[in-house]
Specification:
heterodimer, A: alpha+beta, 5 domains, 7-stranded mixed sheet, 4-stranded antiparallel sheet, 20 strands, 49% helix, flat, B: BirA Bifunctional Protein, domain 2
């Protein structure tokens, strides 16, 4: 017999972002508990809304599977003396609850032992389920939980009802002051009635009748469609915002779209500010025109069908106007202090207890940026005091040094503005907007915004060099600084976003085609941090290098390069991320070719033979056989081509050239014995193989390939 | 028949009082000391502590010196009014009760988009936190709804539900005015006529005239007096001085007399006396044998 298990936990409005993880955990924990209880079951389904978490498990066994357990006791010679049971045997019998004459014997690796076979007949699921279900609500992974009334149990918000049915019959248990039953509830406003639940199919019909869309996917799709349609009615599109759609999906049980408008005069405020006001404070969707510009309309997804939508829309508009007025106030007030005058205010803003103020950070970043610029081939960056340079007017012939210093000092100045205090996500965006309005040159203003790019995986990259260099310097300084305090990321904990920062560095250098020695850059950044940190400098640098290498491996493998290929390329060197990526890509495409596998085996063999050797120079005249000399000639013939190809970073061509020595290499291994008894011959052959290794070693470590 | 919107500020308050009195709340009067929110009234802060039940509703004038705008901003005030309800233990149907109270002043769920949006409330100065919601009516936050979990650093058992209605905001919504000073306080007198001059003077005082050195001394004096009184088991006078210290801090903050780094230190000092008062209050009620528990079945 198989039955449907239905569980609905009804609560007062749950926090939107908690709902998804909670219902997934409810499902996983229920399934784990059923498995542990030996109750076979079908595949679970979940539903969730702000007021309910629902898991349905079809085809659950009505009876637990029987269990036969074989328990092992002491060895036979200990259990019986002269055919008489000893205390050891009696003790075991007592423990397993059988008389001594019901004990069996069993061969085990430790010899023959006495044993007991216990049959546990399966119990009725109805007996087991109350305890299983009662344990679930208290174990959900809410970030914060609360108690209510006189109750001692906790949940994200007070639990209001629990429906628990097995084969349509109530499974009785209690969670705090709430007893399970079959009564569920409809929409808080549109259909507030209580109704009895029989099972999933009937419940779904009742949900529809009670104005609730319980499926998250369906509700989400409906919201997207409704909002899109509303925006289209004024010739616009909804500004894409997956995060907001997700949140709104868990704020409503019955989505109803309402279109509102605001005074177009507010469009003089940067549109990012308006979007943030609508999104963060009100959860409204912004509407864009065909050019991606904000239109003076917005879409609200209400949770109910009001009698006269005009009343609600007027309310939304009134709230938004007050918000926009605040935004305009911040925008005007902030501009009363020009951005440059805010730079010194960063002296009172802590960046990190051990790493000083934000101003000190900016100073370090500017210095590091100048070093990077030189390193990346931007000549004529100024020497002397960058702050003095940046404080002076732009020189008539600025080779880039002034703009770099100016943008560097300005890049964090917007952190002192009221707007960024109100909307932290607008950092950089406001810096750019205020810089433009304060008359800063366009390249400087752009760099302020762009140094934060990419903000996350898949985000746009900086377009200008200034922003890209400053962004690298900013991230390298943060990484070097935080690692030096001993607070590098561990496990899931990465409070300073160092993984994202490292990925940002790698993505920027690779996308811009910059060959940067990471170890040099890390050295430079760590030197800037100096003795502020707690940890040993050498150790910190090694940790950071390893950290970058791990991120680069992740980046390569997510782009489709097999793990072993990425590893082989990185083992050769991970110092230049761009090179390492190109080598990995070349190796990956080579791998599909049929000659690759024997070549890999041959190269692995070379590397293994040379592992603990210190080979000398090879002399062709001293090579004894044709096979030796043929390999020598093949290597000599290809060395220069490979070197040139590597120098030109044509790694595919380099691999192709190396592959040409395969016949000679194979013949060599077939014909001769490297570890010849004649030590002179042996030395020559090791020298020869070392020449082979020198060709491919800069490209990849073939031993890592599987 | 649906109740029509309360037409004046005072009628709205009268209706809320009537609603909660009929439910069984005590209707108490504003506590006669300056404070930033209704939560600071001893009717909430102290009564939320300990096992004794307590159901109360009252209006609380709430002073936020940093929000003063010289009577010029249509939404921000040096002093606004909160209608505060504390229900301890929190009743199971408290959300329905709340919605009924909104109906009583003329806000009906059939006519408005009412939303309960997650809000984690925390008062660092009171060592208090709770979970609940901001209640949005057509996008406007009109009420804060909190289940107290901790007050003065002590766990709340049982848990109280606190409802804080923003009187001016709700009245503006009901009367459909965009400027607080245009509210009808009574049928014949406007909110501006009653309070605008106060706002101008209070703003000038707190931003320009407040004597910083005197208020710094006052803060120290109130703080030490509160501690001293706690030592004498005079819980209520001690708490009165905490309120004065907290208001002195808020006033100094508005005057720009407290730097960012000092700020945290002041907050911790207020919190320390809040904890002390809470501890003394709990001990006192226990000594008295929790008289309000009489007649309550466990």
């Amino acid at each position: 017999m198989k039955n449907e298990l239905f569980l609905e936990i009804g609560a007062e409005e749950l926090p939107a972002r908690e709902i998804g993880p909670a219902v997934a955990a409810l499902r996983d924990q229920l399934i784990a508990a059923l498995d542990a209880a030996r109750l076979a079951h079908g595949e679970a389904r979940t539903y969730s809304t702000p007021r309910r978490l629902v898991v349905v498990v079809p085809d659950v066994d009505a009876r637990q599977a029987d269990l036969r357990e074989e328990l092992e006791g002491p060895r036979v010679e200990v259990a019986f003396k002269d055919g008489v049971a000893t205390k050891a045997a009696e003790g075991f019998a007592k423990k397993v609850g059988l008389p001594v004459d019901k004990l069996g014997r069993k061969q085990t690796p430790k010899g023959e032992v006495i044993s007991a076979t216990i049959d546990k007949p399966g119990q009725d699921a109805r007996v087991l389920l109350p305890e299983i279900l009662a344990a679930l609500p208290g174990k959900l992974p809410f970030t914060r939980v609360m108690r209510w009334g006189n109750s001692d149990v906790a949940f994200a918000r007070p639990v209001q009802w629990i429906v628990a049915l097995f084969g349509g019959e109530v499974v009785r248990f209690a969670y705090g002051d709430v007893e399970s039953g079959r009564d569920s509830r409809g929409h808080r406003f549109l259909a507030p009635g209580v109704f009895g639940v029989e099972g999933e199919a009937q419940w779904l019909k009742e949900m529809a009748a009670h104005k609730i869309i319980p499926s998250v996917e369906e509700r989400r799709a409906r919201i997207v469609a409704l909002a899109t349609e509303a925006a289209k009615s004024v010739g616009g599109t909804v500004r894409p915002d997956e995060g907001l759609v997700d949140e709104v999906t868990q704020l409503v049980e019955w989505p109803v779209p309402l279109l509102g408008a605001f005074d177009p005069a507010f469009l003089e405020i940067p549109q990012e500010v308006l979007i943030s006001e609508m999104r963060e404070h009100q959860r409204y969707f912004s509407v864009l025109d065909g050019h991606g510009k904000l239109m003076p309309q917005f879409v609200v997804i209400a949770n109910t069908q009001v009698e006269d939508p005009a009343v609600s829309v007027a309310g939304y508009r009134r709230v938004l106007s007050a918000r926009f007025q605040d935004g305009r106030f911040f925008f005007t007030e902030d501009q009363k202090t020009p951005l440059w005058d805010r730079v010194k205010r960063l002296e009172t803003m802590a960046f990190h207890r051990a790493l000083g103020t934000t101003f000190e950070k900016v100073e370090r970043v500017v210095k590091l940026a100048f070093w990077l610029a030189r390193e990346l081939g931007y000549p004529a960056m100024a020497s002397g005091d960058p702050f003095a340079l940046a404080s002076a007017p732009r020189p008539a012939a600025d080779a880039g040094g002034w703009a770099l210093a100016r943008a560097g000092y300005l890049m964090k100045a917007d952190l002192t503005t009221a707007m960024v205090f109100e909307f932290p996500e607008l950092q950089g965006v406001m810096g750019r907007a205020y810089a433009e309005r304060a008359g800063e040159p366009a390249d400087v203003a752009k760099a302020i915004e762009e140094h934060y790019l990419p903000k996350n995986a898949g985000d746009a990259l900086p377009v200008g060099d200034l922003g890209a260099i400053l962004g690298l310097a900013d991230r390298l300084d943060t990484i070097a600084g935080i690692f030096s305090t001993g607070k590098g990321p561990t496990g899931a904990a990465d409070p300073f976003g160092l993984r994202r920062a490292a990925l940002g560095v790698l993505n920027v250098v690779r996308a811009r085609g910059w060959h940067l020695s990471l170890s040099n850059a890390i050295d430079q950044a760590a030197t800037g941090i100096g003795a502020r940190g707690k940890k040993d400098a050498g150790e910190v640098r090694a940790e950071i290098a390893e950290f970058f290498r791990g991120r680069l491996r992740g980046l390569l493998t997510t782009s489709g390069i097999p793990t072993d290929v990425a590893e082989a390329a990185l083992l050769a060197s991970a110092d230049d991320a761009l090179d390492a990526g190109l080598r990995a890509e070349a190796l990956a495409s080579l791998r599909s070719k049929p000659e690759m596998e024997p070549l890999t085996i041959a190269f692995k063999r070379v590397a293994n033979i040379l592992k603990d050797q210190v080979p000398g120079e090879v002399d062709r005249a001293k090579l004894p056989t044709d096979a030796d000399r043929a390999l020598f000639d093949a290597v000599a013939g290809v060395e220069e081509r490979v070197r040139a190809a590597i120098a030109a970073r044509q790694f595919g061509a380099a691999f192709d050239a190396i592959a040409t020595i395969r016949p000679e290499l194979d013949r060599f291994f077939e014909a001769v014995m490297v570890m010849d008894v004649d030590l002179a011959v042996r030395a020559q052959r090791l020298g020869l193989l070392s020449r082979v290794q020198k060709i491919f070693a800069p490209l990849a470590d073939f031993r890592a390939l599987s | 028949m649906r109740t029509a919107p309360a037409a004046t500020f005072q009628e709205m308050i009268l209706r809320l009082q009537t609603f909660w009195a009929e439910y069984g709340c005590l209707i108490t009067q504003p506590y006669d000391s300056e404070k930033g929110a209704g939560t600071f009234s001893p009717q909430t802060f102290l009564r939320a502590l300990g096992p004794e039940p307590w159901n109360v509703a009252y209006v609380e004038p709430s002073r936020r010196p940093t929000d003063g705008r010289y009577g010029e901003n249509p939404n921000r005030l040096y002093r606004h009014h909160q209608f505060q309800v504390l229900l301890k233990p929190s009743p199971k149907h408290v959300m329905d009760l709340y919605l009924d109270s909104m109906r009583a002043i003329g806000i009906h769920p059939e006519e408005h988009d009412i939303r309960f949006v997650e809000d984690n409330w925390e008062s660092p100065t009171l060592g208090a936190w709770g979970l609940g919601w901001e209640v949005w009516v057509d996008g406007m936050e009109l009420t804060q709804f909190t289940y107290f979990q901790q007050v003065g650093g002590f766990e709340c058992r049982p848990v109280a539900a606190e409802l804080t209605y923003g009187c001016e905001r709700i009245a503006m919504y009901l009367q459909r005015v965009d400027n607080v000073y245009d509210l009808k306080y009574s049928p014949t007198v406007s909110y501006g006529e009653v309070f605008r001059r106060d706002e101008i003077e209070h703003s000038r005082f707190s931003f320009e005239e407040l004597d910083v050195s005197m208020y710094l001394k006052l803060f120290d004096a109130y703080e030490s007096e509160s501690k001293r009184l706690c030592g004498k088991k005079l819980v209520i006078p001690a708490y009165d001085h905490l309120l004065k210290a907290a208001h002195a801090f808020n006033s100094l903050d508005a005057r720009g007399a407290i730097s960012v780094t000092e700020r945290q230190g002041y907050i911790l000092r207020v919190r320390d006396i809040a904890k002390l008062c809470a501890e003394r209050y709990l001990a006192l009620r226990e000594e008295l044998g929790h008289p309000m528990l009489a007649g309550v079945s466990k």
